[in-house]
Amino acid sequence: MDEHLRLSSLGASVLADAEEIANDMQEWRRDFHQFPELAFEENITASKIVRVLSSIPGMEVYPGFALKTSVIGVLGAEKEGPALMLRASMDADAGDEQTGLPFSSCVPGVVHSAGHDAEMASLLGAASVLSKYGDQLKQKIVFLFQPAGEGRSGAQTLVENKIIEEFNIGRAAAVNWGPDLAYGALFTRRGVMTALSDKIHIDIRGMTGHASEPHTAVDPIMIAANVILTIEAMLSREVDPREPIVVSFGRLEAGEAYNIIPEQANIWGTLRAFDPQVRDFVQGRIETVAPAIAKALRGLASVEYTRNYAQVDNNLDMVDELLRVGVPFFGEDGISMLERPLLMGEDFSFFSNRVPSLFMLLGAGLEYPLHHPRYDVPESMLPLSAAWEAYLALTLAL
């Protein structure tokens, strides 16, 4: 049989199998969504994943590797050679939901607004589908349900505790859902896929006083405002405008009373860039500028700069292999190469820096972006996502 026809036939078969369990995946996704948990607290989520994985024939389940809420499933453990790892993140975000869904988050201040609920349900679906193809499985498949994917470096902890060595992981792949991309299409990129992602914390100290007598105090909120504005202005005047870089401050804390100038203010933000030299320059300038502005305004400031994530780097051979096997699955126009890397940060980089890896986005065609209070995923895409991951496990060359 022609290779293209064989792969097309396999893709259709896997997709049909995924469609048969669409209701199960929908139920799993809604369950995850209704009971979201923050990073390192995914206890209920983990127990649900363990229950589903344990019901899959041939699946070996390893809960709590390196992190108490991690869950790892292994299919085809008897297969020799390195394994292919498929990953889904587990944690939810801080925030309040405004979707009005009957299964909205019942945990105040916690919500799945990044699609992790759907990614977990899809990966469980892929595992369930793959169990029917044991005779066609040519390599061991490791299903990683990873805690703390949202800025808390869960992947780093797993790598540092030798998940790659313990499970003999030779390659890794991950499928995220891209809300602003065309529904049902697959997007990836050769080489660098995501940005460097860092965390910035600036602690500002002033002197408390009454709001009616600001001249007797040193206002840390005023200092914080000047620090933020100066950093943003600096980016437009000291960095080559052809170099993509973003510094955004998303959290500011200061004071307890509306009429009292507080003693302290804290601001937290993030830096995203593609060029390590640009990141180095801006980090140095932030560490210089913030204390200088504070001193000029009679205060003090200290900068804590944390380098969170490196760039996700897609292995070129794996991208070529993706195109070979993916076109029969998605069609000639169903796979697109992104022209530029994404400015998002992704802790999948800890895996891509260690083993050949492939990071992909499945377009969801949504109105609202990630982390929006009205963000919701199209559940009709669950079978497609599950089938694609199962199909990858069956077709990616060893």
UniProtKB/TrEMBL annotation:
Binding, Mn(2+): H116, E150, H371
GO BP, one annotated term: diaminopimelate biosynthetic process
Pfam families in the record: M20_dimer, Peptidase_M20
Domain of life: Bacteria
Entry keywords, A to Z: Hydrolase, Manganese, Metal-binding
Keyword Metal-binding: yes
Gene3D superfamilies: 3.30.70.360, Zn peptidases (3.40.630.10)
Keyword Zinc: no
Cofactor(s) listed: Mn(2+)
Family matches, as InterPro entries: Amidohydrolase, Bact_exopeptidase_dim_dom, Peptidase_M20, Peptidase_M20_dimer
GO MF term set: metal ion binding; N-acetyldiaminopimelate deacetylase activity
Cofactor info, note text: The Mn(2+) ion enhances activity.
Positions of the Peptidase M20 dimerisation domain: 200-294
PANTHER family: METALLOPEPTIDASE, PUTATIVE (AFU_ORTHOLOGUE AFUA_6G09600)-RELATED, PEPTIDASE M20 FAMILY MEMBER
Protein name: Amidohydrolase
Organism, scientific name: Synergistes jonesii
